[in-house]
Amino acid sequence: MQGVFxxxxxxxxxxxxxxxxxxxxxxxxxxxxxxxxxxxxPRTISYAQILQIYFAVAHDGTELNRQGPDIGTQYRSAIFxxxxxxxxxxEAYIDQLNQAHAFHRPIVTKIEPGHAFYPAEGYHQxxxxxxxxxxxxxxxxxPKIANLKRLFPEFYRADPVLVSDMKATQ
Length: 170
Known about the structure:
This protein is an alpha+beta fold and about 170 residues long. Helix content is about 35%, strand content about 15%. It has a single domain (about 10-155), classed as Peptide methionine sulphoxide reductase MsrA (Peptide Methionine Sulfoxide Reductase, Chain A, 2-Layer Sandwich), CATH 3.30.1060.10.
């Protein structure tokens, strides 16, 4: 998902700080989900547009505890909104998609407000940009980037904004 949302930091949400490390999160016993924190300028893209991209390109919201080949509660379909307004918008959008039968199955994405985000280890950041030929990336992520370019060309960037670059300018 980080490749689609280029201003995203890979990390974990849904659990507590002491368990926010890949080795523990990957066991599926921490309450965390692997997630990304998306930073955006609402003058450039709205939260609603981010949700459109999320459900159309980046994520299958009809899979409960799975994303592609990854299985477990740490891969659950969840949105961790920042504030009540984002939660309300996400709930309304999911209701709209379900009422329109936009997908072949109902959306099972849960809205999980009030959880802190914990950045993942450095080697998880910018993973797609640093490993574009890694088999997992080539099979699962590059098609999402192609779909972003095709479906939302106004939001596609050929040159990604990397987390490491964002840190350097802060």
